[in-house]
Every structure is written in structure tokens, then in C-alpha cells.
Amino acid sequence: MSAATPLTCTVMHPAATVTSIGLHGDLEFRTTRLLRAATAEALTRPRLRTLVLDCARLDFLDSSGLSALLAVRAETDAADVELRLENRPQCLEQLLHRTMLITHFGDDPASGAAGPELCER
């Protein structure tokens, strides 16, 4: 069992209509508020059309992290903003498929994800 890595959210605005939030570390019960705060602030941008969550450096997520992603999905839908989860690690991809939540993030549940890796601590 490895130690938890604190979550950091790096916000970038590559275009007037796009905000990208890089997730680094663990998205879990103690850190979901950081993601929620970063996305809430991003959604206040008047011309925002696309919110990208870059998951390349996401190390771990638990059920609270998954719940936070679903809440962000609901908020972006309500704001008519496209949400993209990019650079998903295999453990996130597997978790989305196994819980059938993949459909909430614009992907085909039949596509599957290779490998046995799970998001576990």
C-alpha cells in the first residue's frame, strides 16, 4: 500500500473558449473539493465552451473521486459546456467501464479497456 499523493489542479486557458485542468495526484475523499473548486471557477468564464480534465498524472481515484467527476459532468451539462476527460490512465478507463459510467463521458461502453490494472491503494 503506497502513501497518498496530494491532488493539485493546474488550470490553463489555451484558448478563449477552452479551459484545461491538469489533475496531479489522488482524487479521493479528502481532495475532491479541489477539483470542484477549480471546475466551478472555470465555469464562470463567459465564453467557455470546452472544459478539459487532463488525467495524465492522476494517480488514484476512489468512489468519491468518481462521484466528483459525475458532479462535474452534471455542472458542465447544465452550463452547456463540453467536458472532455483526456489522457485517462488505464485504471480510470477500467473503472469507468466496470461501473458503466463510461457513457457519461462520451465513450462507447462496448469499446472496453485493455489490461487488469485497477485504481487501488
UniProtKB/TrEMBL annotation:
<dbReference type="InterPro" id="IPR058548">
    <property type="entry name" value="MlaB-like_STAS"/>
</dbReference>
<protein>
    <submittedName>
        <fullName>STAS domain-containing protein</fullName>
    </submittedName>
</protein>
<dbReference type="InterPro" id="IPR036513">
    <property type="entry name" value="STAS_dom_sf"/>
</dbReference>
<feature type="domain" description="STAS">
    <location>
        <begin position="18"/>
        <end position="101"/>
    </location>
</feature>
<dbReference type="Pfam" id="PF13466">
    <property type="entry name" value="STAS_2"/>
</dbReference>
<dbReference type="InterPro" id="IPR002645">
    <property type="entry name" value="STAS_dom"/>
</dbReference>
